[in-house]
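Recall that a protein's primary structure is simply its ordered list of amino acids. Everything else, from secondary elements to tertiary packing, is in principle encoded there. The following example makes that idea concrete.
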Amino acid sequence: MQKIAEQQIVIDNLTETAKTVERTLRGIMSEQTEIEPKLKEAMEYSLFGPGKRIRGSVILWICQMLCGRITHEAKIAAAVIEMVHTYSLVHDDLPAMDNDDLRRGRPTVHKQYDDATAILTGDALLTLAFEVLATSIEDSHNAIKMVGVLACVAGPSGMVAGQMADMLAEAKQPDIAMVDYIHSNKTAMMFSGAGALGAIAAGACGETISTMTIYGLKIGLGFQIADDILDVTSSSEQLGKTAGKDTKQGKATYPAIVGMEKSRQAAEKLANEAIELLDCFGDEAALLRGLIFMLLNRTK
């Protein structure tokens, strides 16, 4: 009963932090008065679907753990990482990539509008994210560090590299090393970026930023393994996206390579390693610990 109660606390807090991220995003979009109307509509359609805002919440919770409050810089960073994450989903769903019709329980952007609008929507979200970081973070030193972190985790040696490897893997016989590379770059790198951005927003430096970066990487990889498992075990209604698609497309996933049991064991190992990283933060890390179990045991 205690674990269930603790998990509910995490879920309730995640709901509240998601609202904070959403309010910040809406504030940012309300200031964008010069965007072409159809493009802005498509951007807002993709941004304000019913997402969990997990990456943004990681930033807010890390900042709160380290400095006792959620700073303005943390709110901006949380909104920005969700913009970049949303851009990646819009492009990932395109016919030239994963060709999906459903995202966050709604038609994907290219289905709601058209392919060209979806491409431009993703482009707009990505570039606006960097504009917001560069202009809304008051401390110029922190702004530069945040821009550098986001560019690294989202760019050609991070998320984009993972996307490319994921596409190339469809024509190969994947092994566990290939799956780890894809998952680490395509998904976990953005979580590691959330860890670093949360620490920077709290005014941390050096070893603390490194620890939070590794924490993010481990929960991100565990998140993706859990996602692989859910693709096999859950319905499209539960997931808010097309279930079973990885198997049909021959995607490189943990269950496909090592089976369900070893996939669960790998996710649990990553969870335990992430928890160990939080030991030195004591009770202040309760939400970040709870998040690990929630991601591991989620059903959607």
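The first strand starts at residue 102 and ends at 103. The mean pLDDT is 92.
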